Fold this sequence. Notes:
The chain has 149 residues and is an alpha+beta fold. Helices cover 40% and strands 17% of the residues. Bound molecules: 2'-deoxyadenosine-5'-diphosphate and magnesium ion.
Amino acid sequence: xxxxxxxxxxxxxxxxxxxxxxxxxxxxxxxxxxxxxxxxxxxxxxxxxxxxxxxxxxxxxxxxxxxxxxxxxxxxxxxxxxxxxxxxxxxxxxxxxxxxxxxxxxxxxxxxxxxxxxxxxxxxxxxxxxxxxxxxxxxxxxxxxxxxx
Length: 149
Ligand code: DAT
Ligand code: MG
């Protein structure tokens, strides 16, 4: 099973979408193995978004992501990274496929509600930034056999 890092960004928290968003992933069958709220320190935000350093939107992106609390989570499941990315939709909410989280709730690329790792390698890196190993829980769900054959 694969793990991915997701977070409801400050706009998602402020707009009261946390429950709605977590609920979508739960109903899909992804398993929550880590969950917390935090206000991201600036340095942590710069590390997390390190690949975008130097781009014109980097400053505003770090300002936004540190401006108010986020809800961080680790979800586990078969192909969890790509499944979650599909459910999120494209980076620009106006280009995201109908029904996806970003298409349903977002209007602007700089306020796109949710973050999700883009590869298993990024997932490992990002989980390591936001969670200590002991904050992730190993457990099995009674419903497992009704989600996977
Ligand atoms: P994603 O969040 O879909 O993985 P990304 O990693 O390319 O997208 O960029 C990280 C975030 O930076 C993205 O969620 C929103 C912001 N961003 C990306 N490209 C942008 C752009 N051209 N203008 C403004 N913000 C942008
Ligand atoms: Mg990305």
